[in-house]
Specification:
Layout (H helix, E strand, L loop, with lengths): L2 H16 L3 H14 L10 E5 L7 H6 L3 E6 L2 H13 L6 E5 L14 E4 L9 H11 L5 E7 L1 H6 L11 H10 L6 E4 L2 E3 L5 H10 L2 E9 L9 H4 L6 H15 L10 E8 L1
Parallel strand pairs: 1-2, 1-4, 2-3, 4-5
Antiparallel strand pairs: 5-9, 6-7, 8-9
Helix pairs in contact: 1-4, 2-10
The structure holds S-adenosylmethionine.
């Protein structure tokens, strides 16, 4: 079993509760805002949610009317998805498949939308994964992907007081130059792969896509708020709404992309 599969099998039970934390409430609200307009509504349309995990996006997408294939490498993440999909009465609209998005069994030009949210950071060869997703996407159809921003990832290492921990400056430098990686997990070891906004755009363009829009997610987040605050699950709704309003104001500005912890891209197959 691959390290990633093992990791998400272990995390599956707590995955949905972690999404109640401030950071994910904000990220998820932004994801949906820029994903929803591209979700087809016809019952004849077909969406691929690659690395769809617990069905976080497959469920709202299916509610809009289309059929969804929820594909994931982790059996345990899919088990959680299965329970949630059944509870929502959506088993006839969402087909669950265990598989590897780097090697898909579907023919070329199959899907009306491909989503792969919060997965690109897991791949050391992102070209392989993106071209496989593009292969199964219909010509002219949209794809929504997100990347972890290396500019923010490097700066997030900086301490409040650099004299107390001077070597951390070197760490930030090394993360920036990909000589050192932040880790998603130490056992099994899983690196967090990052891209700068320009690298992300280049990756999409050389994969046969026309980039329509790139938005920043989390401009207020990893650098401005403490990790402890970001992971709190008891932040009052009004505070979350106020932070979200600020986030959306930033995300509407094209020149703020470099500030987001994540970058969400919407592109179309040429
Ligand atoms: C951070 S989770 C994101 C889940 C979901 N997209 C979301 O936004 O909540 C990453 C998911 O990608 C899945 N994954 C990782 N590598 C994969 C691969 N090669 N093929 C299919 N799924 C994969 C993991 O099992 C996990 O469920």
């Amino acid at each position: 079993m691959e390290a990633v599969e093992k990791h998400y099998n272990r995390k599956s039970e707590s995955y949905e509760s972690v999404r109640e934390s401030l950071v994910f409430r904000i990220y998820d609200a932004i994801t949906w805002k820029y994903l929803e307009p591209y979700v087809p509504t016809s019952p004849n349309s077909l969406v691929l949610d690659a690395g769809g995990g617990t069905g976080r996006w497959a469920i709202p997408m299916a509610k809009k009317g289309s059929k969804v294939i929820l594909l994931d490498i982790s059996e345990e993440m899919l088990n959680i998805a299965r329970q949630r999909i059944e509870a929502e009465g959506l088993a006839d609209r969402i087909k669950i498949e265990k598989g590897d998005m780097r090697r898909l069994d579907y023919p070329n030009d199959t899907f009306d939308l491909v989503l792969s949210e919060h997965t690109l950071f897991l791949f050391d060869q992102p070209d392989q994964m993106v071209s496989e997703l593009v292969r199964v996407l219909k010509r002219g159809a949209p794809i929504v992907l997100s990347a972890q921003n290396r500019l923010v990832q490097a700066l997030a290492h900086l301490p409040d007081d650099a004299t107390a921990n001077p070597e951390i400056l070197q760490k930030a430098h090394k993360v920036f130059h990909r000589q050192h990686y932040s880790m998603l997990s130490e056992d099994p070891p899983i690196k967090i792969h990052t891209l700068t906004p320009d690298e992300f755009r280049d990756l999409l363009e050389r994969s046969g896509l026309t980039v329509k829009r790139m938005v920043c997610k989390g401009a207020t987040m990893p650098l401005r708020f403490s990790q402890q605050f970001l992971m709190r699950t008891d932040v009052p709704d009004q505070t979350v709404a106020d932070i979200l309003q600020l986030e959306l104001a930033f995300s509407e500005q094209p020149d703020t992309i470099a500030m987001g912890g994540h970058i969400q891209a919407i592109a179309r197959k040429k």
